[in-house]
Fold each of these.
Amino acid sequence: MTAGDMRNLRTTRIHFGADYNPEHWPEEVWTEDIRLMKEAGVTMVTAGIFSWGLVESRPGEYDFGWFDRVMDHLAEAGIRVCLATMTASPPPWLSERHPESLPVGADGVTKWPGSRQHYCPSSPVYRTHAVRLVERLATRYAEHPALDTWHIGNEYGCSNPVCYCEVSAEDFRRWLRERYGTVEALNTAWSTTFWSQRYDTFAQVLPPRTTPTHPNPAQVLDYARFSDDALLQCYLAEKEVLRRITPELPITTNHMPHHKPVDPFAWAPHEDVQSLDFYQEPFDAGTHIDAAAAFDVTRSAGHGRPWMLMEQAPSAVNWRARNGPKPFGKMRLWSWQAVAQGADAVLYFQWRQSRGGAEKFHSAMVPHGGTDTRIFREVSELGRELAAVPQIAGSRPAPGVALVVDWNSWWALEQGSHPTSALSHKETLLRHYAPLFEAGVPCDVVPPDRDLSGYKLVVVPNLYLMSEATADRLTAYVRGGGHLFVSYFTGISDDCDRVHLGGYPAPLREVLGLRVEEFWPLDEGQRVSLRGEITASGDSWSEAIDLEGAATVAEFGDGELAGRPALTRHTYGDGVAWYAGTRLEPTAMRALMDRVRGDAGAAPVIEGLPAGVQATVREGAAGRFLFLLNHGETTAEIALPHPCHDLLGSTPEQLTSLTLPARGVAVLQH
Amino acid sequence: MTAGDMRNLRTTRIHFGADYNPEHWPEEVWTEDIRLMKEAGVTMVTAGIFSWGLVESRPGEYDFGWFDRVMDHLAEAGIRVCLATMTASPPPWLSERHPESLPVGADGVTKWPGSRQHYCPSSPVYRTHAVRLVERLATRYAEHPALDTWHIGNEYGCSNPVCYCEVSAEDFRRWLRERYGTVEALNTAWSTTFWSQRYDTFAQVLPPRTTPTHPNPAQVLDYARFSDDALLQCYLAEKEVLRRITPELPITTNHMPHHKPVDPFAWAPHEDVQSLDFYQEPFDAGTHIDAAAAFDVTRSAGHGRPWMLMEQAPSAVNWRARNGPKPFGKMRLWSWQAVAQGADAVLYFQWRQSRGGAEKFHSAMVPHGGTDTRIFREVSELGRELAAVPQIAGSRPAPGVALVVDWNSWWALEQGSHPTSALSHKETLLRHYAPLFEAGVPCDVVPPDRDLSGYKLVVVPNLYLMSEATADRLTAYVRGGGHLFVSYFTGISDDCDRVHLGGYPAPLREVLGLRVEEFWPLDEGQRVSLRGEITASGDSWSEAIDLEGAATVAEFGDGELAGRPALTRHTYGDGVAWYAGTRLEPTAMRALMDRVRGDAGAAPVIEGLPAGVQATVREGAAGRFLFLLNHGETTAEIALPHPCHDLLGSTPEQLTSLTLPARGVAVLQH
Amino acid sequence: MTAGDMRNLRTTRIHFGADYNPEHWPEEVWTEDIRLMKEAGVTMVTAGIFSWGLVESRPGEYDFGWFDRVMDHLAEAGIRVCLATMTASPPPWLSERHPESLPVGADGVTKWPGSRQHYCPSSPVYRTHAVRLVERLATRYAEHPALDTWHIGNEYGCSNPVCYCEVSAEDFRRWLRERYGTVEALNTAWSTTFWSQRYDTFAQVLPPRTTPTHPNPAQVLDYARFSDDALLQCYLAEKEVLRRITPELPITTNHMPHHKPVDPFAWAPHEDVQSLDFYQEPFDAGTHIDAAAAFDVTRSAGHGRPWMLMEQAPSAVNWRARNGPKPFGKMRLWSWQAVAQGADAVLYFQWRQSRGGAEKFHSAMVPHGGTDTRIFREVSELGRELAAVPQIAGSRPAPGVALVVDWNSWWALEQGSHPTSALSHKETLLRHYAPLFEAGVPCDVVPPDRDLSGYKLVVVPNLYLMSEATADRLTAYVRGGGHLFVSYFTGISDDCDRVHLGGYPAPLREVLGLRVEEFWPLDEGQRVSLRGEITASGDSWSEAIDLEGAATVAEFGDGELAGRPALTRHTYGDGVAWYAGTRLEPTAMRALMDRVRGDAGAAPVIEGLPAGVQATVREGAAGRFLFLLNHGETTAEIALPHPCHDLLGSTPEQLTSLTLPARGVAVLQH
């Protein structure tokens, strides 16, 4: 057990709670808050996220008195505090005194105060003031009995992910100097002989602001890396203070799911616990699959350790165009889904619904209408359920399949000037993830440098940017007996977004046993048929494949490429490498992935799972827990592989099968 | 009769005319203009709107000589002048010398000269120069025999409704200091504990410029109020000069219909006559209903007194994407519609079609093709018709139904961060107005502080922002025997856009006899059925209603809320309060409103009006006038309630029924 | 033969080659490049386009050494160089030292370095540095044996067509002073009495930056003229140096097709050879018609002399949303199409596919995958074919039909504030061009001041802006026996975008024998039927026509204008003038144009051409060449008018008919 592990989420139950913003309300309401929290089963709150403006209402003048009382109330009630560092949004006085600390868009438009996160991530002014506050805060509450975990900032990069101001430009130059050493190395990395872009000094380099036409892709890629790193440096500056003052306490920050500007794998080494905010879209019938993938990314970033669902909505949010409430039972279902995928904490935004401000129509545990509401009833019921299964805490899933993703590749893939703009990192990930999810095959979602040897199947969906080292590791994985599935437009470009020469995808040609002679993107609405072992149709993408050892599983059935391979399988070393040269429709993708994982011996949790039912397993010291969640709208009958005890049910007998109503949840132990 | 009434439009006929811009043409054309005006029946023109650049071509150097000749020509011809103050658009020299007088967008983009209205409404530079010009102008023409009415500015806020420059920021701070007194009061009003937005001094406050994410709603709302007020201050600065120099003359300014940035009810106390510009959209089959509502707003703002249709197009406009001409007969029909709804003047933009400039393809009374054109023939014929019915002038409609609207609520309603973005103030108003219009039930459209006691029915469509005082007045109105119809998402928020706590809609719960437990917005394209006394379907919005005394008129028939109330009726005191919890399709809305107004005893002008026919009444010293306008495309047969004399017809007999051709107009007296 | 003709493309064969960017690659690759160029049949490359950053990596420090070696290699191999002046894109140091040289949008947003062409066209800084470089370059290579032709800049105005910065504003004022002399003349030309826009001094005039509402159309029009001229001045500044140092060498620059900001007819007098870049869109079934029109514009700009296809793609491009490759055989087909329409050179962008940068996914003669690719095979095969027909070089088409277009009219037509936004210059041109193309009738596409006397038919599609002089010339053309076809909304406005008064279209009323009383634009999706000699339907536009001598060919069959003329024919003098008052669908347009050209005696190259087959003729000293290109997807049988020899075929006999496979090409001599 490492020192990092020691600072894991230290809990013997599934925590339950919310963001708590008592400063929105007069102090008399706080007493009622504590009473209702107990009623609802709250065990943890995260407080102080946006309190900077109140605790330091003038520069250097601190008033923690009111917050002391909040902390004391919570401590008395035995509610743990995941204490925010209060730096998520600076008070108006900061930008009034330092307008150069405001973020600026690529078009030169300043983002002014009036909402939140109005700071340039590279701003020394912001960082200095934030660290100064954190020093005071940590010192004051280091020994407070309510303090459980540190929550640095909040949703880093949600609203200010990239800044193009002069402060950022200067920081970018520093970052480039550190990365490349010489301007010649930069010129090589950025292919600046193209379009007369050669730099003579670092001082000439700029952020990729608005340009007359297509920008330099390597510059844009590096700016994405730099911008993520600038946010991480804000986090690390605060973390340094906290670790110094409270070395024993775990530190986290809440990420947003599938959030392109912030790479969770780059941040993970600096976090003691992974945290995620996830807001299901009730109008999207596949929102639970979207969530499932995000949960798996979060858990995988933490190498499988229990994580926190830091924010979800009790019902509707306020920031989509149309904000449907969570239908009856779905909040419970989706909360248990997080637990089923490894979460040890389920928190909401927020405790009490705001009366004013931009989030007043975001649902909360205590709605505007008070506690005589279905929302308060549903959350309280969930609080009771979670309290009944403390033995789950600390147990972990152990998937046999890994999907490989890379934020660097995402940043490169979705730039312009590509064969097609139809390829979306997230859409492609979900298209590969969904057939495994639906089959009941748990997955990890890991970065390219993760040890793959324990997985029966590794899926690589459209990993456009890939270093030779990664390609070598994938090749070695197959040679050693692994099963690999690779989709089109993978392994094309190196870390500087320069094409690997020698025939696409050059570093994977050997393991895949083929060469792609020419990309053949399809028009919008155009489909191409496939015939062979799999009958299907593809869209968006096709390509001219020459076999070099692989066998054709299906070939194109029409169009310019009729008769040429579309899906291939290559026996290589002791393993197998599959390749898909087009984008299959979901049904065919399910059939193909069923076959691929069958070959690989990657079995589902339960064979023959009814449509719509999710099945996961967590194992730990207290046993092995089977979670069954019915995301469908009809009752499902499920035969259990072993007799199990129903932890949420009322019957003491062992079950061999289960009737799971629509939106139903079962937690079983065997 | 008040002093204000004395300055009402002083006319013994329906005025007819146009914007007159003689400076576009050489003086020899002016003589022809006067001759043709007489031929066309013109009795009034509004002149000088954009003449600033010619009368003051250099700062402080005035040349009114050419304009004297224009005024003299008009006086000689007996044509009255509604004299514009020439300040609608400053000459290029103003912004050349004072670039800080240019308006700036929320994104910092300056709006440069080259079109019109390129001034910041808060600019002291603009106001000073405008007032200086008006002083000269008023002094020069105070005693001119052609001068009839003052026309200040033009279409205030059409192109520069909101400015975000530093001059505006400073003026906003002044306005806030006056409104709130202390920064603490501001913090409370704006709920600034949210997202760490607390202000320490007024100097920190900014306009709601581009922000990283959702802005503070109360700040945005106050900026809409401030911006409207900044424009009003421009108007008032000029008005002060005119009233001082010509205390007897009426003063007006022309508003645009359904123009969100400018609240006609806030301006009305400062206007002697209401004026409106309305441009029907010939491609929109419902454009006359749109117009009808705007006419009723205008008349209601003036408490029913005769108003001016200051601008309409003789045929096509030039500023839509596709500008269809007015089909044969529609210009006449729509002109009479204004009169039918209380106008005592019908003017066009413009007299003679421009040869150059941005409006050269806007139709005019004298087209590019000259007088041998259907346009000149049609307008001349209308001129003759209007001249034939002087007795109508001064008479007024007296509707028995009022719709309540509030620009403050509009400004709050259409902000982001709401349960849905599907709610539009104007669309909702028209959806409630149309079934009354189509049934032949004349309406007023009034602000929330208007005395409602004279109305048989008061309709409150989606009045999101509502003070407790307004709610109390509505409650008292019902208690006293009134009939009230309220639609969803009404009475939610106070004047600072803070939610009224205690269950939606808290201040109306008693009168409506219900509580809304949770909003349930629908997805795009989603519909929910209703069953009960009304069978219908709803879209965009639904909500979970708990009855507290009201009776269910219809319940939801499917979806998550199946079986819960959708439409309710509550007998309260001596009156009745209806409530609609979803957005009904137009047919069901018509059926519902027919029932509601039947209950209330709000009868139509004529029972059983054929589809497409509008019926209105004006009453005055000269009698009672019935207007029938056939907006449909087929002939309509109408049984008259009383024998009538046909004022536009050739027959002297009294009519008991009328055959009204498509696009036909009848003005009847009985 | 003029001095200009002496500098025509001096070739005795069809040149074949590509953009060559050796600086992207290490020198060892250059040797392979030369070897492969010989293999592929390359005879000409254009080099140095983006080399500024390498030859002058610091201001004033030149390193031509590496480029000397490139030139020497090419000379040794006998490959001709169309030498670029290297000024297409300045190195980063230029804007670092002179930020005022960067282009700025109408909204004030700077276009920063990082892509290409980041210079303000009016910038004296850019021009001075460019000319200094060109002086060095021309001096160094004036006598180099590889040097064949000068290629100034590259795709002028592709990415920086219009700049709104202060430098541009000052240059605009200079340009206006030169054009108008006095500010009063400017005021008259710009109709500044409208909206109070009168200027008192030139110093008050600005570019048409973002305005509160519709800008002054004449200002916008003049800014388009000025902006085109600013780019031309950049070209001319370099040309002056080249002509001085190498007076014998032809000079060209490559235009983009249908490129609104740059008027090819205004540039043509300053070019010795016309050059065009054309990138077919493989997903567009009509892309070859689009190309055909652009080729005809290019050839017509050069008064028929041979021109260069300077850039095309070997297969896919990278800059559309979805970039389909060229299907098998289409690259050959489309290359021959350029030759068939008069090109004497067929070049690609580019020789070797880039590894990095924004165009790395643009296809090249040598793809990433190397020479064992269908692309390299197809281009090499084409190189061999072109080498086999040197006798074609220098021959010219001689069409009997001219379409008249005018960039000035384009600039005016597509501004806002018009009767409809549905009229597009390019769409309308192609709608008139396609039925002639499909019938096998070759066309010139000429500016309004071109001598029309040699044409049997002149087509004027929607030439909105037309001087009286042009109208007089069209009238004289018909009077003298010409056949003229004019479409709606033509001849409306003068050179200052002021309407010609006296009934639309005033200057053409006499020749057309009609008056348009009122424009009657149609709604989106609205169609109007036509009945008479042509049965058809129209959309987008209709108008109320009064006959004044013309005869009705078809009248409107429904709608408000039912029974009024829609298509007319007027016998005038010895000729005939047709007029179309609506926009016909393509089938009806084909029928109408067949009748119009039949009347005019404008015969096709081959009567009864199968659908999809293009037929053109080039004639010269070496004979008469018939080109047949099958753009369709089925085999076509074509009866030849005369026995012909098949220059690309293997049979020595004369053919009287030809079987042309799908995508097939035949070059015949008779």
Amino acid sequence: MSQNPQGPVSNKIELIRFCLFGSGRMGVEYARIIAEHPDAELVGIINPNLASATVLSDQYGGKPFRSLTECLESSEIDAAIVCSPTNTHLEIIVQLAQAGIAIFCEKPIDLNMARVDQCIETVQHYKVPFFVGFNRRFDPSNAALRTRVSNGDVGQLNMVLLTSRDPAPPPLDYIKRSGGYFCDSTIHDIDLACWLTGETPVEVFTSASCLVDAQIGAAGDVDTAMTILKMPSGVLCHINNSRKAVYGFDQRVEVFGSAGMLQTQNQRDLLLSHSSAAATDAQPPLKHFFLERYEQSFALEMSDFINGLKTGSAPSVGYLDGRRALEIALACDVSRREGRVVRL
Amino acid sequence: MSQNPQGPVSNKIELIRFCLFGSGRMGVEYARIIAEHPDAELVGIINPNLASATVLSDQYGGKPFRSLTECLESSEIDAAIVCSPTNTHLEIIVQLAQAGIAIFCEKPIDLNMARVDQCIETVQHYKVPFFVGFNRRFDPSNAALRTRVSNGDVGQLNMVLLTSRDPAPPPLDYIKRSGGYFCDSTIHDIDLACWLTGETPVEVFTSASCLVDAQIGAAGDVDTAMTILKMPSGVLCHINNSRKAVYGFDQRVEVFGSAGMLQTQNQRDLLLSHSSAAATDAQPPLKHFFLERYEQSFALEMSDFINGLKTGSAPSVGYLDGRRALEIALACDVSRREGRVVRL
Amino acid sequence: MSQNPQGPVSNKIELIRFCLFGSGRMGVEYARIIAEHPDAELVGIINPNLASATVLSDQYGGKPFRSLTECLESSEIDAAIVCSPTNTHLEIIVQLAQAGIAIFCEKPIDLNMARVDQCIETVQHYKVPFFVGFNRRFDPSNAALRTRVSNGDVGQLNMVLLTSRDPAPPPLDYIKRSGGYFCDSTIHDIDLACWLTGETPVEVFTSASCLVDAQIGAAGDVDTAMTILKMPSGVLCHINNSRKAVYGFDQRVEVFGSAGMLQTQNQRDLLLSHSSAAATDAQPPLKHFFLERYEQSFALEMSDFINGLKTGSAPSVGYLDGRRALEIALACDVSRREGRVVRL
Amino acid sequence: MSQNPQGPVSNKIELIRFCLFGSGRMGVEYARIIAEHPDAELVGIINPNLASATVLSDQYGGKPFRSLTECLESSEIDAAIVCSPTNTHLEIIVQLAQAGIAIFCEKPIDLNMARVDQCIETVQHYKVPFFVGFNRRFDPSNAALRTRVSNGDVGQLNMVLLTSRDPAPPPLDYIKRSGGYFCDSTIHDIDLACWLTGETPVEVFTSASCLVDAQIGAAGDVDTAMTILKMPSGVLCHINNSRKAVYGFDQRVEVFGSAGMLQTQNQRDLLLSHSSAAATDAQPPLKHFFLERYEQSFALEMSDFINGLKTGSAPSVGYLDGRRALEIALACDVSRREGRVVRL
């Protein structure tokens, strides 16, 4: 272990002081990332359930608090990470905005468009930086793909195809409070499609089924879905989602245009192939789920947020990006429920 | 060259006597396949433009005729291949059915559902074998994929994804009389989707654009399309089509289910990769278009037809398969024109 | 079947009249290739065992003869294919050379260097074209690889690595009269190494074992071998051979130089991969052995020979190529037996 | 940054106190690994050139010292990492052994077999744990490959093939004091070959050239080499090395046996392929050199060393492993200089 992990004193810069709302799976991830970041300091972990906050602060530093008010009594805060349950986001965002604290908010911002639109006024009024956690933009292969699209390596864009399949469905409890498959999961692909094309769809169509687990259907949700987004330029985007791919977390992007195609491949834990009398080139299944698969993305995303705060540049993924993805995700849900095209 | 190409006399079997309607690109292909087939004999090539038939008969044997009547005056005929222009198919089919000749018909049978439904009565009345040329079912990799699906290697089917992109658009003249992108090209993918799932869709949605060549749009057609077919079981099928992929003829099938995934890869002319300071594993583009890419499929398909005639078994791709694919292709066109889901 | 398979009369060219020595596995292959070639005619099949020749002539045409003399009494002959047992090659070659007939000879020409050197004088005296059957040069991927090497795509050559592993050992009887692993099998890789580098090695080292079948060792041969050839320029070539790869016929070429690397991949029967909970990207084993794997090569090689005869150009693989590969194969055997480097 | 990076107090374990000899490229790597390791503490950095040690200690903690004696006056030490210049290793090892400090030594231990054999007596006398830094055994894909070999997934081993090519040669100065290509670089592959087969070769042959940079040859060294190791069981191992692969650091392992083959692929920075009119599946070059490519291996190796110290188990890579690899590397050099097989 390091006695001085942030490097020589002469290189010391002023640290961004962070508080963290939420101490669940994503809270652990963000606490670790902040603890390891040379330019950031984890000051407070805020959870009305103080015991949960304490476990996390024991491991990654910072003090546990029941509320932002308590936290601010103890220390000044520059920035906050909001990864508490979705239905608490907006209230916390308002508090943070009023306190002038920069906000990093997990997706989705909220599940209700009217509330989201109301909240944006507060955020804009207080002029706090607001960053939405669409980490997949920061995956190095996705980022390189987009750079190459910008460089014209596929010419004029014609199609985007996104495959996003989980290794296994989450617990039914989670599904019931997730806001539905589209706001919970497809929203990532929707953001990627908009980001890669630089466009917002004019038309959304989703067809979906419950083929993985009948209990998901009984809960009113779906587990298998295909979506088409049509962009104003005519570019077509396909998204396919499944809650269960037995061979592992399947995450592929394909972009097709007048000058060619770019494709990302699945990230592998082991680079090993086996050839036998039964099969050749058999490779191990894709073991990792999103925290491991997108480990680099989460860290790079936070660096981007921190760097923006240090340089004063606008967040690279803003409130309106979060609003747009939510609006499209909700349209997917309407489309699959009503069996019709939704125009935006 | 062989002096006795069909093998030793002792192995001689009775040859199926063929006539061929049409002497265009597909006519040349079928003439060659029949000429090389050990159990078939090319007796006549029928084209009102006798000069065109003569060029083909000079190369592959058989005599040129202006009409079926003329041909039948000269020889008995067991089977006919119909690859004349689409708008001539039905009239020829009726003649052949009345003459009791087995029919192999290029897709689409016709572009008009009412006419197709009327014709089927004639075909059924005369009880002639009728085979529709969906050759892609006979591609060895596609056929092996379906066998593995039947064997349960992907468990319960959830999704089918079909990518079908041409290297370059056909001449505008061809496009204008092709019946539109869906009846001309997507129809192959539609047949594959139905064949792989063993189902007929209940719901069709297509979104399409003209991104490759504005002249195609001016002609009322599209060149870039995405389709979703929803099957009664809830299985979802995606099809994406483009008239122009600069890296070559892109033909991929992916099938996803509860126990895994099967994927076909593009067929390559050369198995050669190059690693340099600029890139690694760079492989040559996919050079071949459909006649080369599906060369094996065309030959295997015709063998299947001939074998069916010899054994008296029903054609493996029948009139109703052709009717179904046409109906869905027409629904795709309605869907993209009217911007709505079409229920079948 | 074709009534006129060689094309229209107006395109008729004078056919090269062939006789074929040998009616074993390779005899069948060459008979078929000649029967299908538009510029060649199979006139005679020569085998002292007339019954064997008759079986082949029944299938592919030509008449059966007991000897060249008998054959020449019946017809003029332009060219001969020699694929009788290796120990009969030289005697046949001398007869053919004296009769002024162009010679296509299977590898190896003979197993005895002194006899090979003596025979070359006869061949040169009678100035007959002489082609040695190193068909792997004509494999489209190998040929493309060499063209790219010539084009400078790997810069200055540094290394060649050749993997050549059979799916299963031949019968022990065959092994006993094969001339040993190096003259029977490695000789192909040796020829490739010389052809790809444009050089003849100055130094040969081979290490070998009997790991596949102890009976092969008991017969004085080996089944697992590694060879290093050092070229005058310093280029190093590695060859690895095994008599048994359970996943199929493994044939790979890698060329490494100052500007990069070129690699060929194994040819696959099916382009299909399977992903399951056990493995991803599992592909079918490599089913085909050499007659199927190198089917194209055999046909292209014969076309090259025939084309050379028609244009009067020198054979692209000549007697000295066959002599060189034999000399190196014999040196490999000395090296592995005596455990020492052999200098050429 | 973390205020408490090693985790909650209740989980605190006694830290292994480390000193580090050397502050060059590998010194930086090991200092970082120790600084980040939860069970280790970097106490001292020892370099007669104190300024160099100070730079490192400023960044990763620990105090700079001129000698072990000075360091021990300041603190107790449990373990030492020796990555000073090779010619200083043995003297340091003796000091550490006498002080009862566990030793982690970079390869090679020394370049002189007699000195290595003398030193081992001291190490054994003082019974200090001794670990040799063959990090490539700890690469996850290599480790998984060996586990699968042990599990019988390739059956009885027949061949091992190792490709190890650097992106560019080191500075000429480094080459001159490196001990030659085989002790500097091939030694890693030699260790892998022995480790994968569980055997020590009876016979070594190396052929080598200077094809990358004539200055390397002028310095008496080579830059392109191929080696065959023959194991007592008859298993054959091939190693190919180049000082310059323009497409990047090429590190591949292939193991072939009676039941199949295992292969590792090169690790990629980006999982992105590009298809254009010029090429398909073109992927970015392999950017990383050994510190990045084997980053995980270095960390896992050190964890293994630390874990061994904590549990009292014998080092998984011991002095005799280092001695063996050196002996074989020296035999490679003799073989290539004298152009003969070397028997061990």
